[in-house]
Amino acid sequence: MQDVLIRHDWTIEEIKAIYNTPLLELVFRAATVHRQYQDTAEVQVCTLLSIKTGGCPEDCAYCPQAARYDTGVNVHGLLQKEQVLHYAKKAKDAGSTRFCMGAAWREVRDNRDFDRVLDMVKGVNEMGMEVCCTLGMLTEEQAKKLADAGLYAYNHNLDTSKEHYSEIITTRTYDDRLETLDNVRKAGVSVCCGGIIGLGESHEDRIQMLHTLSNLPTHPESVPINALTRVKGTPLEHMPKVEFWDMVRMIATTRILIPGAMVRLSAGRAEMSVSEQALCFMAGANSIFTGEKLLTTKNPSFEEDHMMFELLGLKAREAFKDEKETATAC
Ligand code: SAM
Ligand code: DTB
Ligand code: SF4
């Protein structure tokens, strides 16, 4: 039953009021919305692979892959298709239904590497997994080529508020990000867009970011909420650890504002207990990244997550569920 209207006209004041609701009341409200829109027994299981690591020209202050910071990341060029398909199969066998390939690029260029990525997309799609990519900025034509190759979703995060953005990244603008999201939408590809907390932003910045996300003309189909993973050598290495309660508050507010989306408990799980993750699921998170690494940093193992699913009685959401439901409804 979906009796809460999906809105695209949230005001800052309304979002502030939701965000500042006493925590347990906020979790209860989010859990209520979650039950109206989603099957709460299901969690989407996605796996990331860094197909091109490090050496990135951008200056994103959180990122271990920016060439200008000395982070000790294992720099490598574009992986071979066979290596990628091997890892995708391992992820599929471990129960993952979405495979997301990440590249440390500022933007996609029309070159042989892009052709190779198109081929990887085709290969993973043929394995019956939802394929996602996160490759940086993208034109509409490039998004269409990815769609034709079988791309299901594209991840491009807002990361933070428009106001705080220039404190974190100076090598491209907030509007560049919004333009890429628009190009992805126009190509008919599912949009995955969220942000990071712990970048030194204020509560106001988080509210502003949620305002931008929840007022997009079409809501993103998935919204990853990341806790900053503090990496030695990056400008943000000494930031305080993100409070677990802030993650819960962010997830719950996102669930209420964007009820139809998969809300992904993304970076930060490696430092959370199972009980803490359970509260995030209660608050409306229904997607995670599995596999021992995110892109370059640690994540719980497939085995640990399997045990968590058993304990909490969760099951993996099947691949292409949205399409199947639309087909049945027609
Ligand atoms: N280079 C492409 C781009 O920036 O769009 C794709 C890869 S980039 C690593 C994808 C996303 O990972 C970033 O937008 C950011 O939200 C997230 N990310 C990167 N480093 C992170 C960190 N240390 N902690 C949390 N999230 C991080
Ligand atoms: C997202 O929102 N989080 C993922 C994925 N989208 C690409 C990336 C998290 C990266 C964490 C740092 C790393 O492992 O390098
Ligand atoms: Fe490069 Fe992406 Fe890292 Fe920014 S987040 S430095 S664009 S890999």
Automatic annotation (TrEMBL):
It catalyses: (4R,5S)-dethiobiotin + (sulfur carrier)-SH + 2 reduced [2Fe-2S]-[ferredoxin] + 2 S-adenosyl-L-methionine = (sulfur carrier)-H + biotin + 2 5'-deoxyadenosine + 2 L-methionine + 2 oxidized [2Fe-2S]-[ferredoxin]. Residues 41-269 form the Radical SAM core domain. SMART domains: BATS (SM00876), Elp3 (SM00729). Keywords: 2Fe-2S, 4Fe-4S, Biotin biosynthesis, Iron, Iron-sulfur, Metal-binding, S-adenosyl-L-methionine, Transferase. Binds 1 [2Fe-2S] cluster. The cluster is coordinated with 3 cysteines and 1 arginine. Signal peptide: none annotated. It comes from the Bacteria. Catalyzes the conversion of dethiobiotin (DTB) to biotin by the insertion of a sulfur atom into dethiobiotin via a radical-based mechanism. Homodimer. Belongs to the radical SAM superfamily. Biotin synthase family. One of its GO terms (molecular function) is iron ion binding. One of its GO terms (biological process) is biotin biosynthetic process. CDD domains: Radical_SAM (cd01335). PANTHER family: BIOTIN SYNTHASE, BIOTIN SYNTHASE, MITOCHONDRIAL. Its cofactor is [2Fe-2S] cluster; [4Fe-4S] cluster. [4Fe-4S] cluster binds at residues 56, 60, 63. This is Biotin synthase. Pathway: Cofactor biosynthesis; biotin biosynthesis; biotin from 7,8-diaminononanoate: step 2/2. Its EC number is 2.8.1.6. [2Fe-2S] cluster binds at residues 100, 132, 192, 264. SUPFAM superfamilies: Radical SAM enzymes (SSF102114). InterPro entries: Aldolase_TIM, BATS_dom, Biotin_synth/BioAB, Biotin_synthase, Elp3/MiaA/NifB-like_rSAM, rSAM, rSAM_sf.
